[in-house]
Design brief:
Elements: H1 8-54, E1 67-72, E2 81-86, H2 90-93, E3 98-99, E4 110-115, E5 136-140, E6 144-150, H3 163-168, E7 179-182, E8 211-219, E9 226-239
Parallel strand pairs: 2-3, 4-8
Antiparallel strand pairs: 1-2, 1-5, 3-4, 5-6, 6-9, 7-9, 8-9
């Protein structure tokens, strides 16, 4: 009996089919299974955060991987909240958004910079592209609620900022916009004044007059080619003792 031979096109078709199945399985793992794993780690981090707030240990600087604050974005819905952990290594970001350790802490003058995944691994920053000028980003610490407002994205007026802050958008913070796309190596976006000089030595003052929050994530989806950057300026600090739940959380 004469054996049949596979043509080159048939072999190529089989390889492409196999590659397609592998890619499909990888996409399923990234967008589904890692979300389950991250959800469990985020729940553990959030539970530990609550314990630490009830029984504070007196340590100001969190350890790597440890949750120390919680983030809310009211325009994403009332159920959007994530515990923020210290560090931006892969194992840190698997548990939730992570603070760049060289950046400032929430509520401080300078730039509180946070990285997060856009696809899979909990995808905390999947919807950053939907943020609008003046949308609120709220950070809860053990003692405070800190509200940041997204800076102008398409040149809209930033009526949510004070007149003094608006003036700084033409001065000290000129060129700092609410959302832009950049390359992964653009580390200046997490400087005390985004795009400005890096932070000075530990014993020197932070060269910034405003508190900022910067959120960074991959762009486009399923790619590490670029980074999406969100900048927002601090507009309010409230003590939790007098404000169990601030009105800003009800915005949509």
């Amino acid at each position: 009996m004469k054996k049949s031979r596979m043509s080159v096109s048939q072999v190529l078709g089989e390889l492409l089919l196999t590659a397609g199945v592998v890619l499909l399985l990888f996409a399923f793992y990234e967008s589904y299974w890692t979300n389950i794993e991250s959800g469990q780690l985020q729940a553990q981090a959030s539970e530990k955060l609550e314990e630490d707030w009830v029984n504070p240990r007196g340590r100001v600087q969190p350890q790597l991987g440890e949750a120390f604050a919680r983030m809310y974005i009211p325009s994403f819905g009332g159920d959007y909240q994530f515990a923020i952990v210290e560090g931006t290594e892969d194992e840190d970001l698997l548990a939730g958004p992570g603070r760049y350790v060289e950046s400032q802490m929430p509520g401080e003058k300078g730039n509180f910079a946070v990285a997060g995944h856009r696809v899979g691994k909990g995808a905390p920053f999947n919807d950053l592209g939907h943020l609008r000028t003046c949308d609120a980003i709220v950070v809860e610490t053990r003692t405070q609620w800190i509200t940041y407002r997204v800076l102008p994205i398409n040149g809209e007026p930033a009526d949510c900022l004070s007149p003094e802050q608006q003036a700084k958008l033409s001065g000290e913070y000129a060129g700092v916009v609410g959302r832009h796309i950049t390359l992964p190596g653009d580390v200046a976006v997490i400087n005390p004044v985004p795009g400005g000089d890096p932070a000075p030595a530990d014993d020197g003052p932070v060269a910034a007059s405003e508190g900022m929050i910067t959120l960074t994530t991959c762009h486009p989806q399923f790619s590490n080619a670029e980074r999406m950057i969100i900048h927002a300026m601090e507009t309010e600090q409230l003590d939790k003792a007098d404000n169990p739940r601030p009105a800003v959380l009800e915005e949509s």
